[in-house]
Amino acid sequence: MKRREFITMLGSAAAWPLAARAQQSTMPIIGYISARSSDDTTHLVEAFRRGLKETGFIDGQNVAVEYRWALGEYGRLPAIAAEFARRPVAVIVATGGEPAALAAKTATSTVPIVFSIGGDPIKQGLAASFSRPGGNSTGITLLTNQLEPKRLGLLRQLVPQATTIGFLLNPSYGPSEGQLKDAEEAARAMRQQIHILRADTDDEIDAAFETVTRRSIPALAVAAAPFFDTRRAKLVALAARHAVPTMYHFREFTEAGGLVSYGIDPADVYRQVGVYTGRVLKGDKPAELPVMQATKFEFVINLKTARMLGLDVPLGLSAGADEVIE
Question: pTM, whole model, 2 decimals?
């Protein structure tokens, strides 16, 4: 081989990794923020990726997703959002409830945001209207924050002898005041006594269950909150240890051994977040993408847990469940 030919080949070989790096640098980056943790959302991340794939985007091939987790500590979110806004990324995906979406909205008014939240995006300042959000953010609302009265009613049917129902709130979660108001109004309408419990640390969760036992509160409803999602295993274990029938907001809790849940199908929501993210990457503007509302709701009862609690589930209630775990 001639020396000139060897030098030419050597130059081409050296250029290969440079070309690969150049291609990678032009790949759009999604900044994924969650108020929850990676451990409790593995299945939801997979659903998000399915939605991306439906629009032609595959993580690691033609798009890169960088994940950041607040682990239920909402104070971490502003710095995470600010990091993505400074870079900037092509899209910020804010999941796990209002804290992540609001942190992203505060961090940037220009980078597109696709969110999933539990309440009203208009009241939270995330959209001007459902049909035309009008700003740099859009997404889907799970409506889960507004379902506390429904959960209380179902729990009362399940434990009709309960003179008092405990209601566990996460006070650091912005929508908690509205959740409390809705629960109190529903309790008055049902003439049901409720005992309010609050927790935003692991020790306070422990203390709440100690209060339930000490006061002989016969049933408990856990309000929707990202912090509680990250403590799913702990909450289910404490409910079993203290033998208290407990209502949750996602089926994930009943699948983990919780008694009963009522709420939306979170995997379907995250898939749609992935679809919307792909559409934004293709050029659709968040201002013109309507905020969607979850429409698929699930009532799940774990009969195995009911038997362990010595609880007789009314036939009409089990017949009306979307799923019964034996």
Answer: 0.87
Whether residue 312 is contained in a domain is answered as yes
pLDDT at 164 over 90: yes
Q: Which residue has the tokens 């300042």?
A: 125
Residues of the domain holding 81: 23-143+266-296
Number of domains in the chain: 2
Same domain membership, residue 150 and residue 92: no
Per-residue pLDDT averaged across 238-243, rounded?
97
Within a domain: 8: no
How many angstroms separate the CA atoms of 233 and 200, rounded?
16
Nearest CA to 67 out of 87, 101, 47, 94 is that of: 94
The closest alpha carbon to 105, from 293, 323, 286, 325, belongs to: 286
* Residue-wise pLDDT tens digits, 30-56: 999 999 999 999 999 999 999 999 999
> Residue 25: its pLDDT value, please?
54
Examine residue 280 and state whether it is found in any structural domain, yes or no. Answer: yes
Assess whether 234 and 112 both reside in one domain. Answer: no
Return the DSSP state at 257. T
Confirm if 249 and 223 have CB atoms less than 8 A apart: yes
**Could you report the per-residue pLDDT of 94-126, keeping only the tens digit for each?**
999 999 999 999 999 999 999 999 989 999 999
How many CA atoms lie within 13 Å of 312's alpha carbon, on the beta-carbon side?
4
166 with 129, same domain: the answer is no
pLDDT at 6 over 60: no
CATH assignment at residue 248: 3.40.50.2300
The answer to whether 96 touches 249, Cβ cutoff 8 Å, is no
Question: Do 197 and 273 fall into the same domain?
Answer: no
Q: Which residue has the tokens 């295993």?
A: 233
